[in-house]
Amino acid sequence: MKKEIKQICKKLEKENKMKILFAVENGSRAWRMSSEDSDYDVRFVFARHLKDYIQINKPQEVIQIALDKKLNKVPTEGSFIDISGFDVFKYVKMLSDSNPTAIEWLETDIIYYGKQNKVFKEFAANNFNKIALYHHYKSMCRNNYLKYLKSGNDITCKIYLYSFRGLVNAKWVARKKTLPPISFLETLDKGNDLLDKNVQNKLREIITLKSQGREKEIIQNIAKFDSCIENFLRNDSEAPKEKSHITLTNLNKELRKIILR
């Protein structure tokens, strides 16, 4: 599929008169939690010609397209390839705010097109706001838990994994003070002090079930999972306290270099 996605990127460049800096995977495949029928979540950053930015009407900041297995355009819901791209100005602003989505686009090792920007990667690794990133991931955990697991709706393996990914990544940032690995399995392996061993082992079982295509199988609430999540959401004692003092000099310099190329 990598070849097809590369061709799609080239077509998007031509149709939208822009240049894709890099296109990557940032979904269950990148997190090593995919199943046989997982879709492709392609994310990219693009830049326009300088003259396109110097106009009264602001150019389009987000480009989206969804395709089925035959590469026909379809609604995003239920699509096989979900493609979304941000203008470099929007993307760099998100990166400067330590948005986890922007950071993960630089951390993923599945690259479909172009090359991840070295300056952006260095900024993400060395200047991320620990307080902001911790609360971003905690919010992911909370939203998934309250919206799906606590609501009484149908419960699936997938939702538990997404909730725990937020939980574990938040704990990683708080305790290790570095960016968590993009692979959830790697985070569990290297962060074996972040969760109870029984919870970790059960999560690995669920990842295996998901890989076998059983991600949408309806299951009962898992009491020890719910207890672990609720304890985490109630307690902010380990939330980072130290404020980050970042400088945007290198980001601005790289942004000008990209636009004035």
Topology readout:
Layout: H1 2-16, E1 19-25, E2 40-47, H2 50-53, E3 62-67, E4 81-87, H3 88-96, H4 100-107, E5 111-114, H5 118-127, H6 130-149, E6 155-156, H7 157-176, H8 184-190, H9 197-211, E7 218-219, H10 223-234, H11 249-259
Parallel strand pairs: 2-4
Antiparallel strand pairs: 1-2, 1-5, 3-4, 6-7
Description:
- The chain has 261 residues and is an alpha+beta fold.
- It has two domains: 2-127 and 246-259, Beta Polymerase, domain 2; 130-234.
- The protein is 50% helix and 14% strand.
- It contains eleven helices and seven strands.
- Helix 3 (88-96) packs across helix 4 and helix 6 (130-149) packs antiparallel against helix 7 (157-176).
- The two termini are 31 Å apart.
| Unreliable parts | none
CATH fold type of the largest domain: Beta Polymerase, domain 2
Distance between the ends? 31 Å
Radius of gyration: 19 Å
Q: How many E strands? A: 7
Which strand order does the major sheet show?
3-4-2-1-5
**What's the total helix number?**
11
Biggest beta-sheet profile: 5 strands, mixed
CATH architecture of the largest domain: 2-Layer Sandwich
Spell out the helices and strands N to C: HEEHEEHHEHHEHHHEHH
Question: How many domain modules?
Answer: 2
Shape: globular
Q: What is the percentage of strand-forming residues?
A: 5-15%
Given helix and strand content, the structural type is alpha+beta
Highest-level CATH class of the largest domain: Alpha Beta
Helix content: 40-55%
